[in-house]
Design a protein that fits this description.
6 strands; four-stranded antiparallel β-sheet; Alpha-Beta Plaits; single chain; alpha+beta; about 30% strand; 3 helices
Length: about 110
């Protein structure tokens, strides 16, 4: 089991969700976040949006998947969000020790869905 965290551009969210759905990845948590990468957020106009301050708006996707869905998930996010511009985002893959479905008490890979 893996826990995938992706930081993407807000305008790519719908495309990412559509592409994930095509791969059978439907259990996604979405959070609006702020941050900056190497560019340090120093941009007056960033991707057509006027940004104030040093932090840029981003979207964080959090997805728990079984091992056979890792590559599909990464590919779906990359396909939907790549513009080849600075700030496209990052994907992190972390080991997931345990998962439990509260409603049924199932644990492990079956609890992910």
């Amino acid at each position: 089991m893996k826990y995938i965290v992706a930081i993407i551009q807000p305008d790519c969210l719908n495309a990412a969700m559509d592409e994930l759905g095509k791969q059978g990845v439907d259990l996604v948590t979405v959070t609006e976040v702020m941050g900056h990468g190497r560019q340090k957020g120093e941009a007056q106009v960033y991707r057509g949006h006027k940004e104030a301050g040093r932090l840029l708006r981003k979207i964080k996707l959090e997805i728990a998947v079984n091992d056979d869905y890792v590559d599909k998930t990464i590919s779906a996010i990359t396909t939907a969000t790549r513009t080849e511009q600075i700030g496209d985002g990052k994907i992190f893959v972390l080991p997931l020790e345990q998962c439990a479905r509260i409603r049924t008490g199932e644990v492990g890979p079956v609890a992910i869905g």
